[in-house]
Design a protein that fits this description.
By secondary structure, this protein is an all-alpha fold. The protein has one domain (36-299). The protein has helices at residues 8-16, 19-44, 50-72, 82-105, 108-115, 118-130, 136-153, 162-184, 190-211, 219-244, 247-250, 256-269, 275-299.
Length: 300
């Protein structure tokens, strides 16, 4: 009698796929899930404060991650690098709140394009925090990418959108937080980093969320819970994608997120990206893809 299960053929099919194809598919799914999260955040933003949405993001994300924390074991959750965890958490929380604010108040395509500037700031942050040596080509691509950011911000226009400045600051802050993850990962497993990150988010946002609290009703509960759940699943899709595939082959699939954002923005919120948004986003994406390829070649 066979011990195989009905799901075995499906898993066998997946395992036969090349690693890069698996990575591309996983990253495409993760990008789609993040775009759906942005839709929920934007649709809820008119009724709920970004702080309350942030609280749901961390509280529900923590619940979804409990099985991984249990597997890690209580004795493995202790850390000797708590101050660095706190610094990284504080920066990430500020950035997350800023991203939610920009998603609520800016067109989805524009807010997503600004998020793509994180690798540009990561290049600069890695030099100062990790003393990382950056090649001339990577510096050139970074400069070009920042030109794309300027195109999005349009500093020469009559009135600069203040939410565009929030978006730039959020991308920069998130980049620094991500560089600190590299420092933490030398001694801290991913599950431990995620544990302190989510616990910290719950503690930090619980009080302010209680102050601005609006009781969810009906489908809003599903949307708020999904913000935490889908974000968690999306993170794991990204992590798994880069573990099974090569970064320079898999990474460009993340650009689908811009396409998803433009489609969702047009269909659900009647948003039409401007020509400046399209040009700026194209410059940023091109530069970040090139940076990823240069970094992948360097590691090889």
């Amino acid at each position: 009698m066979s011990s195989s299960t009905p799901d075995a053929p499906r898993f066998a099919f997946w395992s036969r796929l090349p690693g890069n194809l698996q990575g591309i598919l996983l990253l495409s799914i993760g990008a789609f899930l993040f775009s759906v999260v942005d839709v929920f955040v934007k649709s809820l933003g008119g009724r709920y404060h970004p702080i309350e949405i942030s609280f749901f993001r961390y509280a529900c994300g923590f619940v979804f991650l409990i099985p991984f924390f249990i597997r890690l074991g209580r004795h493995n959750l202790g850390t000797r690098r708590f101050p660095l965890h706190v610094l990284r958490m504080g920066l990430a929380f500020i950035a997350q709140l800023g991203i939610f604010i920009t998603v609520i108040h800016m067109p989805l395509a524009d807010a997503t394009a600004f998020m793509f500037s994180k690798p540009l700031f990561t290049t600069v942050a890695a030099v100062f925090i990790l003393s990382e040596v950056v090649s001339g080509r990577r510096w050139a691509a970074t400069v070009v990418g920042f030109i794309g950011v300027l195109v999005l911000v349009r500093p020469g226009s009559e009135a600069i959108d203040p939410f565009a400045l929030v978006a730039v600051a959020s991308a920069m802050t998130f980049a620094v937080a991500n560089v600190l993850i590299r420092k933490l990962s030398s001694t801290e497993p991913t599950a431990r980093i995620l544990f302190y990150y989510h616990i910290g988010g719950i503690v930090l946002f619980a009080g302010p969320a209680a102050y601005v609290w609006v009781m969810p009703v009906g489908i809003e509960w599903v949307q708020l819970i999904a913000i935490g759940g889908l974000t968690t699943i999306g993170i794991f899709c990204f992590m798994r994608a880069f573990s099974v595939g090569e970064a320079n082959a898999v990474g460009p699939a993340e650009n689908l997120r811009l396409i998803y954002a433009a489609i969702f923005g047009f269909v659900l919120f009647a948003e039409i990206p401007s020509i400046w948004s399209a040009v700026g986003a194209t410059i940023i994406v091109a530069s970040t893809v090139y940076i990823a390829q240069v970094e992948a070649r360097r590691k090889r």
